[in-house]
Write a structure and sequence with these properties.
single chain; mainly alpha; 0% strand; globular
């Protein structure tokens, strides 16, 4: 009789614990969902706060750590992003999204070889995960490994011929190779797929500049800055356009803006132009 009562009590305790865990999980998920909503609107601080609330409720939520990592990246808080990606991978060593996020962070930290290791791990786990190829192609571009970058872009385009990110990355490789017409073709196609992508407009502006088409180059870079006035690298690109047209004061102003917001290329260009 005593054993039956004890068994009933233990069953009730287990049931209550499981119900508590489920309730906590559901509450945590609601905060994660809020974070996603804020992220889609570019409200990164609020997205971070939402994931932090989720973690308070459920410290074992790999998605809360993973998502917060991506929001920190958008806030340029790379060390915090790296910590969260590492935490997500502790919770799930085969978490593809966390490997991609960590690779993304390492790209931003200019640790390109380390980024490639993480992104390759993600691809090994899920060979159809496009974002891993796209970030890895960006790492290869930084290392001037053009063939490898094009291979990754081609892999993505084999899955989706209209992937604007892959078209943009491949277009940039062609630009670096001096294949300006092929670059223009890819970037124009990417722009048609996603007309409001500032990165594609920036890349195409550089191509137009090399082709001596200053009017088209300025139109693209101005549109990029209209879409995102805080896309600081675009000020560097526009500075190059101004410099090519002999507009030194305008070029210096844009290089300075880029430099003051963390773009090293802008700092170097500003210094060099001051010496001329």
């Amino acid at each position: 009789m005593k054993n039956m009562k004890l068994g009933s009590i233990l069953f009730l305790v287990a049931l209550l614990l499981s119900m508590f865990v489920v309730a906590c999980s559901e509450d945590a998920q609601s905060w994660i969902d809020k974070g996603v909503e804020y992220g889609e609107k570019g409200e990164w601080e609020k997205a971070v706060e939402s994931c932090t609330e989720a973690i308070k409720i459920d410290p074992m939520s790999k998605w809360a750590f993973n998502n917060r990592s991506s929001y920190y990246i958008n806030l340029r808080k790379y060390e915090k992003a790296l910590e969260d990606a590492n935490e997500a991978l502790k919770l799930d060593p085969d978490f593809v999204e966390a490997y991609v996020n960590r690779g993304w962070v390492k790209n931003r930290l200019k640790k390109y070889d380390e980024a490639i290791v993480d992104l390759t791990k993600a691809i090994d786990i899920d060979p159809n995960y496009k974002k891993a190829y796209l970030h890895r192609s960006a790492s290869y571009i930084r290392l001037l490994k053009h063939d490898e970058a094009i291979t990754d872009c081609d892999t993505v385009l084999g899955m989706d011929p209209n992937d604007d990110w892959a078209l943009n990355n491949r277009g940039w490789v062609y630009y670096e190779q001096g294949k300006y017409e092929k670059a223009l073709n890819d970037l124009t196609k990417a722009h048609l797929v996603n007309p409001d992508d500032e990165y594609t407009l920036d890349s195409r502006s550089n191509v137009y500049l090399k082709l001596g088409k200053h009017e088209e180059a300025m139109a693209d870079i101005n549109k990029a800055l209209t879409i995102n006035p805080e896309y600081w690298f675009a000020y560097y690109t526009r500075g190059l356009n101004y410099e090519a047209q002999g507009k030194k004061d305008e070029a210096l102003a844009d290089f300075k803006t880029a430099c003051e917001n963390g773009e090293d290329d802008g700092c170097k260009a500003h210094e060099e132009l001051l010496k001329k």
